[in-house]
Amino acid sequence: MDRTAQRAPRPPGRTVAYEPSSAASPLHVRAAAVLEAGWTGTSTVPSRGLYPHQWSWDSAFIAIGLRHLSPLRAQTELETLLAAQWADGRIPHIVFNPSVPLDAYFPSPDFWCSSTAGRTAGAPRTVQTSGIVQPPVHALAAWLVHLADPGLSRARGFLTRAYPRLAAWHGYLLHRRDLGGGGLVSVVHPWEQGMDNSPCWDRPLSRVAPAPARSFRRADLDHGAPEDRPTDLDYGRYVRLAAGYRDRGYADGPGDFAVEDPAFNALLAASEYALDRIAHELGVTGSARRARAERLTAALVDRLWEPAAGMFLCRDVRAGELIPERGVSGLIPLLLPALPRDLAATLVRTMCGPHFGLGGTTRLVPSYDLLGEAFDPHRYWRGPAWFNTNWLLERGLRRYGERGRADALRKGMLHTAGASGFAEYVDPYTAQACGVTGFGWTAALTLDLLHDRPARGRNGLTAIKGEDPA
């Protein structure tokens, strides 16, 4: 029997967030058990072995699923992350648990030295974090968590306390990270974009001399197969970039790596729409959030749309050119309501065409071009399908009236999540589990898909209790 199908044991004296009813589906019970097993008391780890701390965009996606089990716990998840925010507004990509041994994960707190190297940027003194960021999904998550129990949210002042922190986070990105000068945010490390090992980074990374292999020890290989993980050469480049950023006191500016990424900027725009909803809920006037979201969308089209590819591409800011690699990131802007309709239709064709194969050769959208020279169906972000990107694309398909495709993708995600033991990622052809199983956001987004059966609204768009922040 698959161990993920068993109920997680209840430690003595520990409050359990969810007691499933007898009517709950087995998949629902199994997904809830994964999140229960990952709960630390203040946040949820993505994986007890491979990822034993709190990760930024993981927590946002996990909160979206947790809201169906315990809105209070979902609020706490986001509050814990926001409490580690730096004074300059950045939300760090890792918040370290001091009870976890240093050698359990690399780069560890003693590599980042956040409280000392990040002092000028306003790193917190009472908690250790990394110094880089991850995609800004947090305002979208906060809005959805609020909607799960508005009464509780208002009673606790959840949005009242979260709003200024989220606004400062967006302000940091919009004002400190427009390194290309075109109105889009740049990432300064592949880990910031979240799709760490994508072939889209190969060209700009080739300028980075790798750190010597003897200068670090990769803890990830203790938990994952080497053929599923980044190569030592790539990892050495990641370490070199991170160390250089740390040694500059985490000061933003032109460096060896600066890339405008479609998904990162699309998620910022989506979260600007969510902040607009939050501002209205709180009675905040003059926030102009919707206008900012529309400007971001226009800048995406102006700077990153490539008609010949039929999708958005990444821009290498230092080289001043688009990167000719098709990654799933270039499909994520389908989320945005202000996207020109002809571009949205083209994205759907590309998603279902030979490069990504949705509905034909693949059940879930792969992370990279099936026809690309660097495609690998098992290696981290170089081809496998991930559940968070497919969840985003399911919402995008539904937004633009592609109900049949959205329903098929939803069905495929639910089947694959259960069959793979809630895998971190899967082979896009065979759905074979890769990485670790019992992965946090896979379980959380499974719960979200199970809980909210989308109704067909006007023009086939999602109509779920006002959840769509746009």
What can you tell me about this protein's structure?
- The protein is 42% helix and 5% strand.
- Strands 3-4-7-8 form a 4-stranded antiparallel β-sheet.
- 54% of the residues are buried.
In DSSP terms (H or I, runs of 4 or more residues), the helix count works out at: 17
**Which structural class is indicated by helix and strand composition?**
mainly alpha
Largest sheet at a glance?
A: 4 strands, antiparallel
Q: Supply Rg.
A: 21 Å
Proportion in helices? 40-55%
List the strand order in the largest sheet.
3-4-7-8
Overall average residue pLDDT: 90
Strand content: under 5%
Q: Alpha-carbon distance between the termini?
A: 43 Å
Order of helices and strands: HEHHEHHHHHEHHHEHHEEEEHEHHEEH
In terms of per-residue confidence, which ranges show pLDDT below 50 for 5 or more consecutive residues?
1-16, 456-465
Number of beta-strand segments: 11
How are the secondary structure elements laid out?
Elements: H1 26-38, E1 54-55, H2 56-66, H3 71-82, E2 94-95, H4 109-112, H5 114-117, H6 138-148, H7 150-156, H8 158-176, E3 186-187, H9 190-193, H10 202-205, H11 232-247, E4 259-260, H12 262-282, H13 289-304, E5 305-306, E6 311-312, E7 315-316, E8 321-322, H14 341-352, E9 385-386, H15 387-399, H16 403-419, E10 425-426, E11 433-434, H17 440-451
Antiparallel strand pairs: 1-2, 3-4, 4-7, 5-6, 7-8, 9-10, 10-11
Helix pairs in contact: 1-17, 2-3, 2-6, 2-17, 3-6, 6-7, 6-8, 6-12, 8-12, 12-13, 15-16, 16-17
